[in-house]
């Protein structure tokens, strides 16, 4: 396993930083956590829940504006034989086709 350099903090922390730049709610949550390292599973779960809420609200607003919506659902088993489902929404907002997973 290779070490993570200072420039590359790993996918989870990089995505979290990017999300915090755009979303005040996430930024405030990160600022309220002293000594954040991103390694605690409890903190990770809270931040994932927070990010999920932001994404859900954004998609819901876009879906409310769309005249037509296409929904595609697919299910498969992962390596531990647990069922995993993906849902894709496709819709058009302001003459732009959006696709959300």
From TrEMBL:
Pfam families: DUF4371
InterPro entries: DUF4371
Location of the DUF4371 domain: 6-101
Name of the protein: DUF4371 domain-containing protein
Organism, as annotated: Periplaneta americana (American cockroach)
């Amino acid at each position: 396993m290779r070490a993570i350099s200072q420039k590359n903090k790993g996918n989870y922390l990089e995505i979290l930083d990017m999300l915090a730049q755009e979303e005040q709610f996430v930024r405030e949550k990160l600022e309220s956590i002293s000594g954040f390292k991103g390694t605690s599973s409890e903190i990770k779960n809270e931040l994932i829940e927070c990010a999920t809420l932001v994404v859900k609200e954004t998609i819901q607003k876009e879906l409310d504006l769309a005249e037509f919506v296409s929904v595609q659902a697919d299910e498969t088993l992962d390596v531990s034989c647990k069922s995993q489902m993906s849902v894709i929404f496709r819709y058009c907002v302001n003459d732009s086709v959006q696709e959300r997973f």
